[in-house]
Structure formats: C-alpha cells, structure tokens
Fold this protein.
Amino acid sequence: MYKNKFLISVIGLFIIVSVLSAKDYQASMFGIKSDGMTLNTRSIQQAIDFISEQGGGRLVFYVGRYLTGSVELKSNVVIRIEEGAVLVAVPSVYDFKGVEGHTALIYAEKQQNTGIGGKGVIEGNGDAVKASVDEQMQKGYLKGDVSAYVPSLIYLKDCENVQMEQLILQHAGNTSIVYENCRNVSLSDLIVNNQTTGKKAVSVSGCENLKMTNCYFDTTVTPLESTGDSQNLTFIKCITPDGNPVSCDK
Amino acid sequence: MNKYKFFLLSLALGCLGPLAAKDYPASLFGVKSNGTTLNTTAIQKGIDYIHAQGGGRLVFYVGRYLTGTIQLKSNVTIVLNEGAVWVGSLNPYDYNLEDPHSCSLIYADGQDNIGIIGKGVIDGRGREVSYNIIDQVQKGILDDSLKLDRPARRRPKGIYLYNCKNIQIKEIMVKNAGEWVQFYDHCENLAIDSITVDSKAYWNNDGLDIGDCKHVRITNCFIDATDDGICLKSHDRKSFNEDIEIRNCVIRSSANGIKFGTVSAGGYKNIRIINNKVYDTFRSAITIATPDGGFVEDILVDSLYAYNTGNAIYLRIGARWNKGDIGKMNNITIRNLYAEIPAGKPDAGYTYEGPVEDNPRNISPASIIGLEGGHDITDVILQNVEIVYPGGGNPHYAYRGLTPADLDSIPEMAKSYPEFSQFKELPAWGFYIRHARNILFDNVTLKALKPDYRPAIVVQEAENITLKKVKYKEPGGKKKQVFVYKSKGVKE
C-alpha cells in the first residue's frame, strides 16, 4: 500500500517536474490562426507531432477561436488552452477521426504524460456537427447510427499519466470525455455543459487510478457512466447544478 | 457699416470657397484604379502638390487603389466617391512600421483643415498584414514579443490623426485595420458624421478612438467592431478630453459599446452621449473607467438603448498605471436608459468574439465601483432606467453570499484591467455599488426573468445612496431585494 503511494508520488513529482521544464510553443509558430474561420486541423497536428518529436512541450493557444477537426494527442505534449481561447469543432462530419471508430475532437491511443489545461473552452458545436451528419445521411452517403459519426470532445484509449484541468467543455455532440483502459489520470476543475445536446459528460471503462476533483456537470442526463471493470476511481467535490455530488457508483 | 462688413466677408468667403475646394482627380498624378498598382508615392505626390498649391480636394472615382502609408497635409481633403476603395497593401514594409505615430494607412501630424469624405471605402486589410508581420517575426527579421500570439507592435491603423485641427470625416466606410481602425489624438474641432465602421479584421480592432480631443461631434455613425465601439482615451497626463458629443450612433462590439478608457491618464470633461443604440455587444453598453489617474466629470448619458448586451453600465475607478494619482469620477448622469441582458453569449458568431473569461460566474450586475481609501465615485444620477436580466443565478455554479466574510472577500483589484466581469461572482443580480457617495436612483426598474439566488441590489461601503421609485421584478416569492453592508445614509 505504502509502496504504491510512494510510486504514485514519484510519478506525480516526475510529471510536475517535466511539465514545469516543458518548452512552450505558441500556436502561431505553426501557422495556426485564431480567426475562427481558418480550419487549423493539419497545422495543429503538425504542431503536436513536431513537439512530440522534439521530446515534448506545451502547445499554447491564446485568446481567440481556433476552428479544427480531429487531432491526435501524442506523448509528452500538453495542450494549453488559455483563458479566452476556444478550440472549436468544425461542423463537418468528414473532418473527424478517432480510434477504432470512436471519433473525437482530440484523441489518443497508447500515449503517456500528456494532458490539456488552461482556462479556455473546448466547443463541441454539437448541434451543427450533428446537422452535418443528418444531412449526409439523408443523401445516403452515410449509413447507420447518427451518434457513431458525432465526435466526443476527448477520447483516450490505453493512455497513462494524463491530466485534464480547468477547462470548460461545452456542447459536445457525443459523450464529452471518454477514457478506456487508461491509468493514472486526473480530471480537475472542469465545467461541462451539454444542456443543448443532451449528452453525458464522462464515460470511463477499464481504468485504473482515476481522480476527478471539483468538476461541475450541467447535463440533461446522468453526467457520468462507468462500464467494464475500473479500479480506484475517486470523485471529490463533483456536482450537478442542483448541488448534488456525482460519482460513477458501481 | 455693419452691413458693409458682412458683404465684404461674404465676398471673401465666396472667393475662398471655390479656391479651397478645387478638385484634382487622382489620375492627374498617375494614380491607378486597377487594384494592383501600388499607388503610395503617386497619392502622396497628389497630396503634397495640392497642399503646396494652397489646398483642394484629391478626388478618387470608382476603382481599387492599392496603397501603403499616406500622409495627409493641411487644406487637403480626400474625396472617395462611391465605388472608390483604398486598399491597404499586404506588404508590412509599405507602412511606416517603425514609427508608432504614423504606422497607419493614412495619418496626419499637426495639420489644419483636412478631411476624408465621400461614400467610398478605406480597407486596411489588417488581418493579412498582421499575418505577414507574424511571419516576419517568426523568420527573425522583425523583433516582437508576440504576446498573446499576436504582434505587440507595428500593426497599422486605418486613420491616425495627431495634433490636427478642423477635421471633417464624413460618409466614408472605414474597415479592416491591423488594430484600432481610426484614432484621433490631441485633435480639435473634429466632426465625424454618417460614417460606417467595419472593424472586425483582427485583434484590438476598436471602432472609433478619441484621445485627449476638444470639441468633437460624432453623429449618425454605424460601428461594428471586435474591440470597443466608440472609445474615449487619454494617454496624456497633461491633457484631457473636453466637449465631446456622441449622438444618434448605432454600435455593435465584442467588447464595450461606448467606453471611457482604458488608458485614462488625463481625463474627461463635459461629454454628452445622446440617443445611441448598442446591440449584440459582449461587454457593457457603457463603461466609464479611470484606472490611470485621470478625472471624469460632467458626463451625460441620455437615451441609450442596449439590446442583447452582456452588461448595461460599468463605472469604475482603478489604480493601474496611475503613478500615484488616483482617478476621480463625479457628476455622472445616466437617464432614459433601457437594456436587455441575455443568458447566452451576446456576440456569438461574430468574427473575433469576446473572450469567455472570469468563470465560473453567474450573470454580472451593472456596477458602480470605486476604490478603498476614500476614492469614491460621487454624484451619480440614474433616472428612468430599466434593465432586464435573465436571472437564474445558480449558487452551486458560482456563489457570493451576503455574510461579512463573503462581502469582505470581494477583492479591490485596483491594478486590474477594468471590465464588468473582473470580480467574477458578485452578490447582486441587478446592481452592485461599492465605494460610492451621493448616488441617486430615480425611477429605476430592475427585472429578472427567472429567480436568482442573489438580491437585486447590494450596497457596500457606500454613503448617501437614495433609491427612489426603484422597482424590482423577479418571479417567485417576495424577498428582500436590497442588501446594505458597511454603508451610511441608504434611503429606500
């Protein structure tokens, strides 16, 4: 037990040290535009790939609206969305990718020491994205279940040491955050607002050591779900608008 | 005798008029309207020539006139006829980049009797110019901090007139600068009438900036800006704004509709803001802020209508770049104001939307907030005012209660940039008054469309506050709508 705690502390310390010493890269270095109109998908991906290849660092978005499709998060890259910055999902179904059919605005598989933070916003644009799926389905170019095409905001699979902090996540067309088989992950000071889209906030399955602190979930459905075997899930001060605490009771 | 004098004067004026108004078509100087020829030197030659001839009008007919920085000179009026467009060069080096006093598409310094008139357009193409500056910075050619990932310096304005007199700006459309689209600094006798401003090309795109000017009339203008709409500033501690009238304007902004500040070193005196409309505006319909030591006095805001605007009124004294002096604010009258505050984001969908910030926070109240240590905002009258709020403040999302501990914990934030949301959650849904004296509310209606956990008004550390004929409309059971804390002479 103590050994385990010690190990976690060491890992925690390592993360703090590595984040502190991480190099910052401003988004404009990669030609990323804050005008809310330029589709930045490829530039943001190039930035993440470049920073990861350099050994890691932080990609920093300052105030502005950054239109994007799906991007893949890589090890040792932290995305900073500073106060006033908004990562906006482009309302076009063909701009989203994911892992094994699960699409998300930001996704990752088998990556470590990564995260997203800042006081900024991830705007899912859920209704507009869904409308673009509906339109393509009516024309017959897409088939099956609508929700299979509408992306989550964040989807992580088999990832380790991931921190999400201080973000506002809103209008997700699908469950905002989905973690599958992840270990040592924390989510803190998140505000999730899915009032208009009616989707869940967080879905967890097969995770180990997940800690969620001080989160506010404004959803029309039960905000959290836990499927599959997860171990050591902790929920502290996570509430809904009526003030009731939430957790993934299993 | 008097009649004779009048006759002579008329004769003199009659002779002067045609002389002063002599028209020179731009083509005389080889200026091309094809949109691809860079006309900077030819246009400048036209202005220099007309100026040397004693004055006249440089006339542009329909076409696109590509140009870099142009200097306007005394007794020259630029006439942009309908269909004529001045198009800003995309090459940053075509502007006076290294001189902050002339880094603009058109500028003048110390000139008299000048104008820009006609139904034509000045289009600075500031976004592309700014992108090209960023490119030069990242190549290492230009040096810039790129604070907030944008060039901190060198972004060209559209029009920048400094220390000029007798200026006429009429009917033109001004658009798309790298920063403020027009700035009139230390000018006198300035008339801006019936212009259209489309200032949404890039960051810090104010609509119309007036700095330390005297005798200004801004009338019948339409302004759509990403930053403040009409903004009175004072960069000069030894000067101030005086006798300025803003009348019959319609303003849309992703910051404040009409604003005093932020830089407010000298001050503001005798400013009249009459019969204006503000809509789809992210921050306050009217902000009067003095964070840099300047004074504000004798201000009249009459007939201001604000629809879908994030906040109605924000009056604020701060101590940011004040160098020891603390600003003063007194004798402010706001009457016949109607404002509707939405639950959602009022500027959603506009280019360069205002930043989502200071969260978590329920809908912010209108505020009058001075500073501790006796720096009260004094003698404010609010008469015939109605503000409609969405209500719905949720204590689980953000909470500021009414206990001494809660109220004392509201920070002073003297050094902070003044915006209505800066204090995050405030304890009232309608009006918050702190560090203020001699405040009269007369026939004020505060309406919340949904129940809010907060009272309508909180008065804190204030003196002689009279709430006369103040009506509160909030659904749900009756509740105490005024809460007074550490204050004297609050009359309901």
